[in-house]
Amino acid sequence: MATKTSPKPARPGYHCHECGWETGKWVGRCGECQAWGTVVEKAAPRSRVQAGPVTTPARPIGEVPIEDSQSRSSGVPELDRVLGGGLVPGAAILLAGEPGVGKSTLLLEVAAQTARLRHRVLYVTGEESAAQVRMRADRTGGIFPDLYLAAETDLGAVLGHVEDVKPTLLVIDSVQTISAGDVDGVPGGVTQVKEVSAALIRMAKLRNITLVIIGHVTKDGSIAGPRVLEHLVDVVLQFEGERTSRLRMVRAVKNRFGPVDEVGCFDLSAAGIVAIADPTGLFLDARLSIVPGTCVAISMEGRRPLLSEVQALVTASAAERPRRTVSGVDPSRVAVILAVLQQHAGIRLHAHDVFVSSVGGARLTEPSNDVAIALAIVSAWAGKPLNRHIAAVGELGLSGELRRVRDLGARLSEARRMGFRSALVPAELGGTPGQSKVVDGLRVIECDHVRRALSLLELQREEKPTGGEGRWG
């Protein structure tokens, strides 16, 4: 007769209360979000779940009204482009960026422009005094009767201001400075940021208020605080820019109301922040004289084509290991381009220092800039300038082939609009390499290999009659 064994007790489970990662045993550090002290034991499941009251009855999706969720303009067209039309009532927007990049200046401009359109705005600052914000608003021309300002660091006080002002737009600068009195932890801690953000988002959804939260970033560039914060909000915007440049860009990392491949451009100066509808001119030098080592690349920032000038300098090196210095371009891509030029174009740069930089603070990280970087390097090494009216676009493969890139038509249209006469592009499948055609006044030169590109641009190798190393002349 078989004996009846008692069932084994279920092993206790543990999970991270920040990101939801699960494990069978307790650990001090979450294996997913790498946060310390967030792994806790799971609560015992309830045997039964009772049905509770509903807030509003379910209805067919076609009968749900959408009038209350129509987006309205923020008064800043470049931000409306990134958001997908404007500010949506009840939406929670998180704007993150490095210190000093201009987050507060941008949102003060958004608040002022929204108040100018006769929408009531409440700007809550926890990092500055009200007088400091007023001084910045005076400098940027952001004084309007419908713009209310409060300096608070307590969550209860912030909710009290919302009750009194009844705004349509609420700006919190920043969430790391606001704390809830009944929650453990210091302001800016994981628990405080999570509870404060959840309370503000619940209030915004309930009152149909557009909520914009400023968030800090860590030294590696990620958003500070719990990762669940990015899941709670509807839109996550990244505000970025070089400290040495006035150009600032807003990118949508997450957007429930629009695309995530748009980018907004702004000019930050002492007079405030101004939207730039046509930023291509910032990335192109005046180019009064033709010099070797320059080429114009056609890159895509979101859905917007931008023409950027890339410069290169090649000098003989006396060091055992030549320098490879870049600014505004991907160093790994430059290393690949140098290897391809040496292997498939016969250009020996192992005894030369190579410097590559973009102009105007542009960041050329897209692979479609490979051909322009390669041409700039060869032009600098040969000492022969390229035609100032030609632009290049294309990805460079490891075997020296030119690969096709996306949105080629939009790139060529932008080059034609900026007055360029020729463009070097990868050859189409089934096409004849080296042929050129005229498209709306722009001469399009198709090429399939980097060696052929150098030949088409008359960067051909000339051997010295007395021997020695040749050059591209």
How does the SSE layout of this entry go?
Blueprint: E1 14-16, E2 22-23, E3 39-41, H1 77-83, E4 92-97, H2 103-116, E5 121-125, H3 130-140, E6 147-151, H4 155-165, E7 169-173, H5 190-207, E8 210-215, H6 228-232, E9 235-240, E10 247-255, E11 263-269, E12 272-275, H7 280-283, E13 294-301, E14 304-316, E15 324-327, H8 331-344, E16 352-358, H9 370-382, E17 390-392, E18 395-396, E19 402-403, H10 408-417, E20 422-426, E21 436-439, E22 442-447, H11 450-456, E23 461-462, E24 471-472
Parallel strand pairs: 4-8, 4-9, 5-6, 5-7, 7-8, 13-17, 15-16, 17-20, 20-22
Antiparallel strand pairs: 1-2, 1-3, 9-10, 10-11, 11-12, 13-14, 14-16, 18-19, 21-22, 23-24
Helix pairs in contact: 2-3
Task: Describe what this molecule looks like in 3D.
The radius of gyration is 28 Å and the shape is elongated. Strand 11 and strand 12 form a beta hairpin. It is built from eleven helices and 24 strands. It folds into two domains: 209 residues, Rossmann fold, CATH 3.40.50.300; 181 residues, Ribosomal Protein S5, domain 2 (2-Layer Sandwich). Helices cover 24% and strands 25% of the residues. The strands form five sheets. The chain has a nine-stranded mixed beta sheet, with helices on both faces. Strands 15-16-14-13-17-20-22-21 form an eight-stranded mixed beta sheet. The C terminus is likely disordered. With 473 residues, the chain is α/β, with parallel strands linked by helices.
